[in-house]
Amino acid sequence: MSITHIKKMFPGAVTSEGFYSFYHYMIQQDANHIFVIKGGPGVGKSSFMKKIGQTMLDRGYDIEYHCCSSDNGSIDGIVIPKLQIGLLDGTSPHIVDPKNPGAVDEIINLGEYWNEEMMKKSRKEIISCNSKVSSYFQRAYFALKEAKIALSEWKYYISTYQDWNQINQMTLKVQREIFKIAPKKHGKERHLFAWGHTPQGKTQFIDTLLNTTDTLYILEGQPGTGKSTFLSKIAEQAATYGLDVEYYHNTLDPEQLDLIILPDLQTALVINSEPYAYIPTFAGHTITLNFEQSLNRTELMKDCGEEIEDCQIRVNQHITRALKHSSKAKATHDLLETYYVPAMNFTGVEKKLKSVLERILSYVEEEAVAVVKSQPYSKL
């Protein structure tokens, strides 16, 4: 029996730029089928997708769980890579509009199964909760803006004392190590987040993303030592070679990278650094790159030691403040769900789930027929 794999990532994130979405990278637009699920809080969207995901896992299919940055116990989508089928939450703030309606995309509206008259009785409470949730997230965004400012100051002090010639030489050395292949035609790129600012804290599932990786480069060093720029250069080189590249962006500053995966080479490169320190549990070959070896630490600490310590404190304080606001938003959202759940016809939702699952399983049958047809004929 084949071993199934679960990958977990964040398609959107609470960042210093507000809610930042990479939802259009969850699944390719030329997929076999994309189910876009609509409906309010508490209508069962996440449970709907989880049940289908578990069923397909039980049938031996790898599954991607696209986790919710507002609650890492919930999901915003699942993808079944082998069947090229996805189910996505299409409600605010991660609006997903069908690109190929009818041909690929289909909207499932779970709002069809609620009692509108019952919900109208809680109209004021629902409006009040939605307003509070928006306010808490706005406060989280402001806190993360402050964290980004403090982190930028921290990077400024460090970068001044970095030997960039040595970093450039290390970049060239690693590029020569990695790219020992002939160029391909054209690779695909995919952008997501490896980390999330969730109500449960700073959250990541990076280990789940590395199950097909043989070699992992771990980049260590303080902010400002050149790690994210290094990742960008490696990714750019991979794209030049026509390789597929998975970009995992920084959840504080989406312009920066935390991780890149090169599936064609079974190689990944990840940052292990505050304020998002990642210690991998990885059975493959690891190579550690220390970006502080070329740093003039003596002069740095003499000239900027106190300033750096202050920056560290402010970064962590503001991220903690953002996480508290996210937690309050989650608690208010949970309250909001209590107004929707009693008004839901979950029997109807369950019937819809079974019909969607049947349609997904029809692709399994088509896949099996295609495999049989592709096998050469042989006499017994």
What would your notes on this structure say?
- The structure is a single chain.
- The protein contains 7 helices and 16 strands.
- The chain has helices at residues 45-58, 116-120, 123-160, 164-178, 227-240, 297-340, 346-374, and strands at residues 6-9, 12-15, 18-21, 33-38, 63-68, 71-80, 85-89, 105-109, 189-193, 195-198, 201-204, 215-220, 245-249, 257-262, 267-272, 285-290.
- Strands 1-5-6-7-4-8 form a 6-stranded mixed sheet, covered by helices on one side. Strands 9-13-14-15-12-16 form a 6-stranded mixed sheet, with helices on one face.
- A hairpin with a 2-residue loop joins strand 5 and strand 6 (71-80).
- The protein starts with 5 loop residues before the first strand and ends in a 6-residue tail after the last helix.
